[in-house]
Amino acid sequence: MNASHVKEEKRHLLELSAAERVRILHQDIWIDYPQSKIVLKMIKNLVQSPRQLLAPCLLICGEGGVGKTSIIRQLKAQSRNWEEKIIYIALNNNPHNLHFRDLLLSAMSVPTAGRGRSKKIFPDELVQWIVFQNIRAIVIDELHDALVTLRNEQLKFLSLIKGLSGEPWQLSIIGVGTALAKNALMHDTQLARRYFIHDIPRWSESESFRQFLASLEENLPLRLPSQLYSEEVVKFLLSNSNGVMDNVVKLIRYGAINAITSGKELITVEGMRAAMRNPWNF
């Protein structure tokens, strides 16, 4: 069997049963692509720059499904061995409905008990803790979730993150969100000056999209080449996904499952159409 279309380290997967390969297809995989490389490089450069009186801040902006959270997941993996520490907060993962202040202190492993009567937003020792731990940035995923509130609560939150980027904290705020977050920042002149806004666009017909598809195909446990970068497949994917990363990956995943269960062993437009009608009927 010629397996040159699959990465060498993944060719052993082709020997597995159909059921085992379908199970593998349901697992998340990471594929580098131009937009992700740009974002990860920007964050690394920002975090590793010298401390400034007003820390530089960044907003990664894009609609749902374009790959923002996957990029942050990859950032977590890449930054583990950096000297500079990043704190991660996901505003959509707050089962106890904590205030942002308490979410932040919890993420920094700073106790919050017994501080209810204090008029200070943060404990005095937090500055020393930030310096000791070399904490340089806070990544706030789903930033827009903090802005779907009453205007008074929005202003409190925006004031808080504005303060964190200045003295004495000097923390870079890296927000990840939708256009709602961008619009909120743009309404505050001081915040707008501090933030560089980077938009993650949808996919379009381009060489970078074809390269992404080719890289993705190398990771699929299919015994025949699918040539996902072909003109027919590219046009089908873009027209049926609206260029949204999550939709593209789902079409390919379910097309690959169809390829295995049908015995064809390669993704076809017909197979993806069949999978679209009922992706779980395999």
Automatic annotation (TrEMBL):
Pfam families: TniB. It comes from the Bacteria. This is TniB family NTP-binding protein.
